[in-house]
Amino acid sequence: MPSIVFGLLGLAVFLNFMNLPRSAPVVGGMVLSLMTLPTVIISARAALKSVPPSIREAALGLGASRLQMVAHHVLPLAFPGILTGTIIGMAQALGETAPLLMIGMVAFIVDVPGGFTDPSTVMPVQIYLWSDSPERAFVEKTAAATAILIGFLVLMNALAVVLRKKIERKW
Amino acid sequence: MQQTAVVETGVGAQAEPARNVKVSAENCSVFYGDKQALFDVNLDIMANEVTALIGPSGCGKSTFLRCINRMNDTIDICRVSGRLMLENDDIYDPALDVVHLRARIGMVFQKPNPFPTSIYQNIAYGPSIHGLVASKSDLDEIVERSLRRAALWEEVKDRLDQPGTGLSGGQQQRLCIARAIAVQPEVILMDEPCSALDPIATARIEELIDELRQNFTIVIVTHSMQQAARVSQRTAFFHLGVLVEHGETDQIFTNPAHDKTRDYLTGRFG
Ligand SMILES: Nc1ncnc2c1ncn2[C@@H]1O[C@H](COP(=O)(O)OP(=O)(O)OP(=O)(O)O)[C@@H](O)[C@H]1O
Ligand SMILES: [Mg+2]
Q: Which long-range CB contacts under 8 A does B33-39 form with residues at least 24 apart?
């Protein structure tokens, strides 16, 4: 689904219907959560499904309740997969601009935001704005911001891979 | 509700003094959706005996076994009718706690399925969820005793902290048996416990089953006639969801009452 649609949804629901402030990080966060939810859900489902039924049977056969079966066996085994999905979802949200345009997170912000409801902007939008500025100083700023953004993306994806390798169990 | 309760007490009173029956099935039928898999099975399983369930593939042996500890509850489309009693308790009584039931009736599956945790934790899990232990030393003792009883202690005592999944197939199956024993069940159900094992591992498990009989009641599903003859005291022969005949293993093997049983035992069909 095109991410701009989530921006429209956020605009309609969070701003117009729920009357939350424009350009606010809370709203941006909620819109991005909605957008990454499918990724996270799909990977979590796949991870849960990949736990072999024989393990579930073993737990139930020993007299574990359903809750105990899930908490003690299924979730720990599915955890690496769920974690990977979550990190990838977060990495995806990190570079997203389109849905945030719709909720007004493109304004030129002078002050450092002091809270979740203060107007603010996001890194990709900031890069876009800076790259447009004719002043010489902004070239470096743009480059630095881009480097930070890419660095973060690489870091998070690497973290996902490492964690996955580390806690993954084989049988 | 009221009526069933009256009938139950009547049957319980009737069955109790007769013999040492551990589990009894009366008119037990099982349906998977519209398809009936078991037809009015009546079978008494005696305490401290090994009962073998034999019959061709798809005849409902596993289905019957899984009724006894209500593992069939996990299959949505599965429906059980008739009555199953564990001593004087109705297994399908809605008021009965399934968790408690499964603590009294343990199960060993066809494919060894140890948890991907350490050997120690595999055994310790059951006792700890049922609150059978007060201290770490109690738990250590249960782990050792269960492993000894399952004839696995000598092989794994130096690597209790290593994953149970790293053992050989036969060892894994003995680990699963030890795991079941650790909960101190009264009955142990085994669904083709040796089908994934070589003859030597199989022989060890058969020996083990014979020893376990002193403390537990065992029901074993097997495809091997020799195995049924070797380990069991009683045998029940199923065919197409019907319990064709049951009785002393010697009698079933030497002098079966039904032609179908004879044909199956001599390998004429199956
Ligand atoms: N989960 C299920 N859903 C639908 N039908 C099932 C299910 N499990 C078993 N059956 C059907 O019930 C019948 C009895 O199956 P069951 O597994 O009890 O046979 P079995 O005697 O254990 O066979 P085998 O020796 O091959 O293990 C079969 O016809 C099977 O197709
Ligand atoms: Mg079977």
A: B33/B77, B36/B241, B37/B63, B37/B241, B38/B63, B38/B64, B38/B67, B38/B241, B39/B241, B39/B242
Positive or negative CA dihedral for B150, B155, B158, B164? negative
Which tokens in the block code for residue A47? Answer: 């991870």
Q: Is residue B132 part of a domain?
A: yes
In this predicted model, which residue has the larger pLDDT, A143 or B268?
A143
Query: Residue B270 domain-assigned?
Result: no
Q: What percent of chain B shows pLDDT beyond 70?
A: 92
Residue A125 has pLDDT above 90, yes or no: no
Q: Do B102 and A57 touch (CB under 8 A)?
A: no
pLDDT band of residue B19 (cuts 50, 70, 90) is low
Residue B192 counted as domain residue: yes
| Residue closest to B62 by CA, chosen among B248, B244, B207, B241 | B241
The answer to whether the beta carbons of residues B113 and A55 sit under 8 Å apart is: yes
Contacts of B180 (CB under 8 A, 6+ apart): A61, A62, B106, B107, B108, B126, B188
Mean pLDDT is lowest, of A79-88, B139-148, B181-190, for A79-88
At B184-243, the pLDDT tens digits run: 999 999 999 998 888 888 898 899 899 999 999 999 999 999 999 999 999 999 999 999
Q: How far is B48 from chain A (nearest CA, A)?
A: 20
CA torsion sign for B62, B63, B65, B71 is: positive
A3-167 is classed in which CATH architecture?
Answer: Orthogonal Bundle (1.10)
What digits encode the pLDDT tens for the residues B101-119? 999 999 999 999 999 999 9
CATH code of B9's domain: 3.40.50.300
Which of B29, B34, B62, B73 most suits a substitution to test ligand 1, by most atoms within 8 Å of the C-beta? B62
Instruction: Give the ipTM of the model, two decimals please.
Output: 0.83
Atom 6, ligand 1: residue with shortest CA distance: B32
Give the number of domains in chain B: 1
DSSP string, B82-94: EEEEETTEETT-T
Range of the domain at B31: 2-265
Residue B85's identity, in one-letter code, is M
Which residue, judged by its Cα, is nearest atom 18 of ligand 1?
Answer: B60
pTM for the whole thing? 0.82
B23 within some domain: yes
Query: How many Cβ atoms sit within 10 Å of the Cβ of residue A57?
Result: 18
Across the interface, of B101, B102, B115, the residue whose CB is closest to A55 is B115
